[in-house]
Amino acid sequence: MQVLPLSEAIATHVHDGQNIALEGFTHLIPFAAAHEIIRQGRRNLHLIRMTPDLIYDQLIGMGCAQRLTFSWGGNPGVGSLHRLRDAVEREWPRPLALSEFTHAEMAVAYQAGASGLPCGLVRQYAPTDLAGVAALGVKTLRCPFTGDALAAVPAINPDLTILHAQQIDAAGNVLIRGIVGAVKEAAMAARRVLVTVEEQVEELGADTNALVLPALVITAASIVPGGAHPSYAHGYYARDNAFYLAWDEIARRRDTFTAWMERHVLGVRDHAALLRALGVAG
Amino acid sequence: MSTEPYSRDEIMTVTAARQLRNGAVCFVGIGLPSAACNLARLTHAPDLVLIYESGTVGTRPVVLPLSIGDGELAETATCVVPLPEIFAHYLQGGRVDVGFLGAAQIDRFGNLNTTVIGDYAHPRVRLPGAGGAPEIATYAREVLIVMKQSPRSFVARLDFRTSCGYLDGAGARENSRCPGAGPRAVITDFGVLRPHRQTRELELAALYPGVSVEAARAATGWALALADDLEQLPPPTPAELAVLRDLHARTRSAHAGRVHIKLPVAT
Fold it and tell me: Which pTM does this prediction carry?
């Protein structure tokens, strides 16, 4: 486990054409890492994430992605992800292939990947058109004990999973508190794990059953305070709901989106500069 | 009874809230379902157990969350569990009484589309997709659907069937082995639709004050049948309106609030 500046961590571990999961369910979304990927101009990424959220809207709109594996692609509580829609409906800025699942399917796909299994299982539900979409890759499996029809979902094993977390200790163990989504599964399923954290501490002081990713599963870490903004870090800062509401207008048009990204992501040195420019950090 | 003015959104939210019995375990979606569930919790159903798919169980938010995973939900929850457990242990495990869903399109048997308008490969409108809806529709003991009624959303034929209601009608859902009973009611901005006992086709079962059968039919993309005992729904009470408006006012103010992040001096 190495602690690196974020630009170096991304340069070392993110490569064109990778299968890459930037996870965090609404909470602890690694925005700073995504912005650095955009700055470094990575291309043809297969982006994996349950809820693409603004983070993948930005990566897709900036032309970094060629495929998206996901289970719900909206701006939560607000509406559409306009850049995702533009890529699917009008192939702008480039075509985007979709692999689409339900939340439950994607959760077991990560669990299977984390467990060294070829597939995860859910009970097979009633006939819907999801079953007929070839890209889904969900197949029926008969239970050898009961004969019940089960749905087998192929395991997800990202080349790299990137997470944001609250703390890392001197030994490289990482503490995650609050809504945890499927971050543990996405980390354990990945060949490499990169984390950004709010702060480094001597000791985590975590409860016995707290979610700690031990140093042995972490490949590299970067200290990036505010690295989840406009998502949030429980115990540090709240979700910037006003920004999520404002994003609807920013991302609705190609020119306003591009101008925003050029000014706030390409045009700044790092995440701290972005937070200062937005007036979020002073 | 008071005739305090109210909006269609308000009577829709109040009517949805009244469907929830105290003590039920409710799987909540964002938006109007979340408003309805919290209104119910703050009025007639204080022991309603709210579960959001982000993993928060027994949450009692003071303001409505904008997203399914706002910190407010975690801070006021009985417990926060990993997302795979919400679907495996709570939903598939059969612990959810009521699921609340919305959609872009619904058909006469309560099947829902949240995936695409147009062809899947070349959609006219790419919608957010499945999320947790297919499993909620399958496993919750019963489902409530909340949608504004229009010929574009209440359609004769779905562009894509994402989540199941009663499938193709009489007996189809039972044959499909779905553990849950299916949609109990569809709460719209005109009134309430309920499935016919045998055919499972949605019928107009109740109307809000001042809304006509003709208006409800004109807002439906199929020939909407009337239930035998068409009911007139009461308006929201002043108490319900007061609680709901307080909740929305608190929420608006919270969502407009500025976030401040303290950066270490060195950066």
Answer: 0.96
